[in-house]
Specification:
- By secondary structure, the chain is an alpha/beta fold.
- It has 2 domains: 173 residues, D-Maltodextrin-Binding Protein, domain 2 (3-Layer(aba) Sandwich), CATH 3.40.190.150; 100 residues, D-Maltodextrin-Binding Protein, domain 2, CATH 3.40.190.10.
- The chain contains 11 helices and 10 strands.
- Strands 1, 2, 3, 4, 5, 6, 7, 8, 9 and 10 form a 10-stranded mixed sheet that branches.
- β5, α6 and β6 form a beta-alpha-beta unit.
- The N and C termini lie far apart (40 Å).
Amino acid sequence: MCSLTNAQSYPDRPLRIVNTFPAGGSGDTVLRIIFEKVGKNIGQPFVIDTRAGASGAIGTSNVAMSSPDGYSLLLGTASTFGTNSATQKSLPYDPINDFTPIVMMATTPYLLLVNPNVPASNVAEWVKYAKLNAGKLNFGSFGLGSSNHLAYELFRQKSDIEITHIPYKGGAPLITALIAGEIQTSMDVYSTSYPNVKSGRFKLLGVASAKRFSLLPDVPTLAEQGFAVEGGTFFALLGPAKLSPNVVELLNREVNRVLETSDIREKLALQGVEPVGGPPERLAQVIRKELDKWSQLVKTASLKFD
């Protein structure tokens, strides 16, 4: 733990944030938007260290093993601090005990999508159609055990529809398959799916969030339509376990300060994400809720990921 003297002079050199997914993705962009300004405010730059692989486990475990001096930080997501623990038999890190929550930065919910040839304009009509065609329809995901796979499995469980899962290797082939009608439905985030909704290549039936998505205020949530399903991704800042409370307080304060500025909020909106902010405890609660939700789903639905 940092001494009081060290905490008072913190930070006195550049800080590292590990991004566990490929450079150029949404997480990388969110980090650059937020921390360019945070770095200017605190007088030290943030260096993004991309360590992709194993669904984020490689980079996440790297930070778990780093010194808790405040100079090695982590971008946490709904995969690394949610679904991974439910889908992987042995993670090289403990999402609760190996980390110190700092702040929830932003979120983006999944949108429930169908091919335009599907005769449904809302969730109830889709469920009715799926039940009339039980076992004949497919839904796609980014891959077996991915966050949108589990989100759709949760919807499938809540709606009691019989539909086959087709895993793809990432978002691009998934989108191509949905446009082509190879699959009838999927869930995806706003930034990659909404252009296809606007062009008529997809139909948007609802949003998998607790409240309406600020970028789509006229689109009802799945819960409003009778199916209490929440899924999506989040962008959170964490450090190793035993991080000094002084460091946590400084970073939390500065990120919250930046998230309240109109220019940053506008830049995040262009990426299809909502700023969140709040105290470290809020992030800790979200992580525990995510871990519980997905582990319970995997057990009750008897999902296998081998």
